[in-house]
Amino acid sequence: MIPTIPTPDELLDKGFSRGKKQADLLRSQKIPKHLKGKRIEERRVVTSCQVIKDKLKSIIDAVPEIESLHPFYQDYIDITVGVDDMKQALGGLNWAYGIITQLEKEYGAKIRKNPSEKATAIQKQAYGRIASVVGKIKKDLDFLDFAKQNLRNMPTIDFEATTIVIAGFPNVGKSTLLRQITEAEPQVANYPFTTKGIQIGHTEMHWKHIQIIDTPGLLDRPILEMNDIEMNAIVALEHLADAILFIFDASETCGFHLDNQYNLLKQIEKIFSDVPVIYLFNKMDLVEDAEYLNQYIDDEENSIFISAIEGEGIDKINKKINRIKKIERNFDEEDDEYY
Ligand code: GDP
């Protein structure tokens, strides 16, 4: 998404050395003596400006327009590096591009107008100004380099697919389940505020593409304890989820009492208020008294007893998943509820 970002010195070196090379090519050419010095310095300044401008433009063009991205990515970029800072940095590069275009014209003309003896001095002036402009965007180049490092390994989301987000306390069996209901190894990508990253598994059901997302470290702990930024990381997921798979560890061997697990569920339901939930009671192979679970079941129709490790109940989950409808969210409209 973001190409390699040069430092100001690298950018100037590249421009000036190419300028020198191109100018040197003129030295062996037959040019009237009174014009030669001017031609050489003009070529030097113009080439340097163009090389620097080309590099700036290639960076500006390679970074996608943030507003054109899916809200999930807009949020992702905002949480990870800050959308405003990103816009400001790109604005800085645009500014430098404009000024260098002016300098190229201004100093090209100045060299042409003056006698050859003055050409070198004018070229030096031009270089001084170019260097000063490039120096002024140091913080922008630094920021884009920081953004490049931080936006590396962003999750690849298929926005056409039906998307299911897994939630539940640690060790309830989320990743075991993800592996049971998806094909191949899940994709592991970075996600803000999750140390283990986000895991995305894919499966096809009746020609429908389904992606299942597990977010270790995010939807597995009390939401009331989260800070604003972590909440934003959850809101980004809200743009994607067509359903939530909430996993209870019915055996409580994960170390969390069912009362607490139920509380987490309620918090998640509050945040994802428009998203349907499928309730999975996992590790049933370890449970003797299933009666006890009744108090935690609000919606019998959408509750399934499973054993992820033994593959028990997976077919029932698949049947439910198959019926999930993609939530239509119109992000393009101006009066969009999110923006
Ligand atoms: P996560 O942290 O929620 O992703 O949980 P994991 O999938 O890593 O599972 C935590 C532990 O529970 C692992 O040791 C799993 O083998 C175990 N586990 C997961 N599902 C079941 C199950 O259905 N029955 C039993 N007995 N153990 C399970």
From TrEMBL:
<dbReference type="InterPro" id="IPR031167">
    <property type="entry name" value="G_OBG"/>
</dbReference>
<keyword id="KW-0547">Nucleotide-binding</keyword>
<dbReference type="Pfam" id="PF17835">
    <property type="entry name" value="NOG1_N"/>
</dbReference>
<keyword id="KW-0342">GTP-binding</keyword>
<dbReference type="InterPro" id="IPR005225">
    <property type="entry name" value="Small_GTP-bd"/>
</dbReference>
<dbReference type="GO" id="GO:0005525">
    <property type="term" value="F:GTP binding"/>
</dbReference>
<feature type="domain" description="OBG-type G">
    <location>
        <begin position="162"/>
        <end position="326"/>
    </location>
</feature>
<dbReference type="InterPro" id="IPR010674">
    <property type="entry name" value="NOG1_Rossman_fold_dom"/>
</dbReference>
<dbReference type="InterPro" id="IPR006073">
    <property type="entry name" value="GTP-bd"/>
</dbReference>
<protein>
    <submittedName>
        <fullName>GTPase ObgE/CgtA</fullName>
    </submittedName>
</protein>
<dbReference type="InterPro" id="IPR027417">
    <property type="entry name" value="P-loop_NTPase"/>
</dbReference>
<dbReference type="InterPro" id="IPR041623">
    <property type="entry name" value="NOG1_N"/>
</dbReference>
<dbReference type="Pfam" id="PF06858">
    <property type="entry name" value="NOG1"/>
</dbReference>
